[in-house]
Amino acid sequence: MTTTDQAEKKNLETFLAEIDQELSKVRPYLGWGFKRSGLEILHCGEPVCSLFRVKTLASAEDHSNTSFIIEVLTETKEVTEVTVPNKLLTRNAPAALDIMSDKGFLPYADAKCIRQMITT
To answer: Can you give the pLDDT at residue 10?
Structure first.
């Protein structure tokens, strides 16, 4: 029988492994050196934001109303989902990051940089 603590630890370990794998794909595409250090994503050794990963891209059958389903790591080390509309992310990245922040996401860098990581 798995305890809640064991399940949460496994969930966190899986989340961290997925982020490491996804960051390795972002680096060559953007030509930027992103990496995870502890519970933050770094660029050139400087903190960019707390940990997140794009879980999936969702849209209506006609491909309208596209949204990113993003997992963020809260300050209590829980993984939670947030839905961010692509329209908002494209037109007003700071407002989109505010939606993520309501779930525990911590942005440190320019919103455009984080937007680029999400959409890549």
So the answer is: 53
